[in-house]
From TrEMBL:
Residues 32-236 form the Solute-binding protein family 3/N-terminal domain. Belongs to the bacterial solute-binding protein 3 family. The keyword Signal applies. Pfam families: SBP_bac_3. It comes from Zooshikella ganghwensis. Keywords: Signal. Coiled coil: none annotated. This is Amino acid ABC transporter substrate-binding protein. The keyword Manganese does not apply.
Amino acid sequence: MKFLATFFLILITCNDAWAVRKVRICSDRGLWYPFMMTERGEAKGMHIDIIRMAMKNMDVKLEITPLPWSRCLRDAQKGRYDGVATASYKDERAEFLIYPPDAKTAVKSQFRVSQVEYVVVTTTDNPYEYDGELKSIPQPVRTPKGYSIAEDLEKAGLFVSSTALGDKQTLQNLLRDNKGSVVTIPNVIQHLSKSPAFSGKLKISKTPIKSKSYFLAFAKQSRLTVDEMNQIWSEIARIREDNAIMTEIAEKY
């Protein structure tokens, strides 16, 4: 009887620890529709909704601060945040971030927030169509600053311009210069093409160049234990696999 009382006391204490803990993460404040965006200073998007729901289900308080992506990564490295939303796997990032166990090896990780495809975007008057040959992509290839896809393209020998702070700016630069290309996700183009500034001016190549898993990655200096991280990743996976929940989230965007 004494053993059972001790067990339940430990269990209640563990639950209370989760309930009062505040997890602080930063997110990319740029437009990465529908996964990540910022409205009136608040982080929004499908990735944010999934993470918020996972934390709420586990009675964990969550604070999200939208930042320029490079700064978000830098501040997580310094221990100012418990994690970042959301990051693909890179060896360089793994030096200061903790990823799910299959992040490095799996093409589609079990613990991803979502899987994202990258496509080549050109102006509509450019006849180019990506055919699977990376070196054929019109240069300069534009990507936002700090995005991992830039390094992938540079390794293929392409000239990459990654000074813009977000996809919208990279596309504005493409239209201004009328040469080269942008590598981004198709949802961003579909969303921005609703506005007169971009409508009818951009073309998406049909063949994706890469598919990546994106994660809630935790800072190595976070107060969270590895067990707690695993619990959060498992809850994210459960939510992502629930078609009813994901349909409800997607309909918001």
